Amino acid sequence: MLELKNIIHRFPESPWELNINRFSVSPGEVQGIIGPNGSGKSTLLRISAGILDPLAGDVTLGGNKLKKLKRHTIARQVGYLPQELSSEYDFTVEELVRMGRYPHTKGLGILNSTDITVVQQSLEFTGLEDLKKRRLSQLSGGEKKRAFLASVLSQKPGILLLDEPASALDLHRQVHFFRLLRKLAKGKIGVAVVTHDINFASLFCDNLLLLEEGLCLAQGPPEKVLSRGTIQKIYGKDVFLGKHPETGRPTLLPTLTDEKS
Amino acid sequence: MKIKTIILFGIFFLAVAAITPWIGSETIRVEDVWNFFRGTHNPQSDIFWFQRVPRVLLALLAGGTLALVGACFQVLFRNPLVEPYTLGVSGGSALGAFLAISIPSLWHVWGPFSSVQLLAVAGASASLGLIYSLSRSQKGISIYTLLLAGITVSIICGGGILLLTYISSPNALVVFQRWMMGGVDIVGYKELVALLPLLFPGFFLLFIHANDLNHIALGEEMALGHGVPVKKVQRNIFIGGGLATAAVVSLVGPIGFIGLIIPHSVRRLVGFDQRTVLPCSFLLGGAVLTVCDCVARTVIAPTELPVGIITAIIGGPLFIYLLVSRQWK
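YS: structure for the whole thing
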């Protein structure tokens, strides 16, 4: 389990502060991190992945302090997909996915038969088998995201931290992507996903963490977090809170109040 | 990693190494070269063994080093226009060499080392040390500060060189100008041996991180996520690249374009896997500089051109071609 306690973080020459009492990701659950721009979602995820050291507080992985662990030890247990993905160096999909085996190899990163099997599984899981010989520049935005996810999956992590993995995808691809996350959670992987799409978070996540200006506004199941009170506090009266016809989970739609008046 | 591709590049490298010592204004016969081992010396055998072979070996090493460092730095800085001299190494090195050339009391030779070479290495080391300390923070090295500090140190060294140019004697200016044009014209093997204490640790630090560089090419955060100790890799590549470049520049002067163009060409030929790109860049860089030197010493024989002129004349248009063809693609 990945656990964060009493986290405080500030950036130099900025009054903004992230202040989170408790946040955890357990195997088998999908945690959604939501909130408006600048609320600290990505900062929280980067601290969880050990990319950023908080000014105060503890981050533990399986009871061990994250700070004391070596990077390859962390990478064997935690997979991190950043928001910005660079494809200036035009690797093939297969090369990229093979790179995910880094924490399990040494030196020049030569893969053994187990590594190759894991790479193959990651390609199959993300539906990229037919595209494995393609270069990153030959992929669509959605395919590229899946290729990077496959690379992180081939690390075989128990915890997966994803920063806006479904942004810029069309509706069909977003549904596909979030279904993949549910499938991963079924396989006992803990997933924390930063997303701007509250409806997707509500439908596909077990728990949500709602942030505003670096503070936790609400935490728990979507029905509890997406209440009329919290939604109005963040988005004002511009949104309408309804229920998904199939699941009964909260869904948000924009209102046309201003135009009517 | 493509072993067969590396072997192919290796064959080309060895072919260039085997053929180029035979080319030059003086015709050399196989018997002359062979008789050297039987104790029969003649001017042709001496030219072959004490001028052409060391010169070819130096060109192979220097060209290989510049291309290797260029390939590493382009990934480290994630900037395709970076070359080994971007870190201010050549500026510091040139200032050191010019000090030794322009101040007579500083001109000495100790065994394989000359004061020009030693002060060039000292200048390069001072530049690197200054840049490293400027870009270091509690969190490690800032790549952007490193790049800016490198450019700034180059400008400061340029100022020092201008000052020395203003006060130096005309003779010293001619020697310095020749050094700046770059050249691999050495006699004997002493200077080559003097290179090795800096080159080998440099190569070691660069080659052991070939796989790590693949991940850094994906961005710092992605590399950290994969488990790469990014700061340690950045530091080692910086030190390794700096050491190797300082060693080469101190002996051959600032030879341009090899460190910029060869990595670009190699990536086009073999793809982006740095475990293949780094050895192939070394092999192709060495071979290309050797061929350029061959052209430099034969094109207007018996007069020899500095090899830096040839690399600039060939390299400039080739780089423009690579840029334009990439845009069209």
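YS: worth flagging: The radius of gyration of chain B is 20 Å.
IM: good catch. Also The mean pLDDT of chain B is 86.
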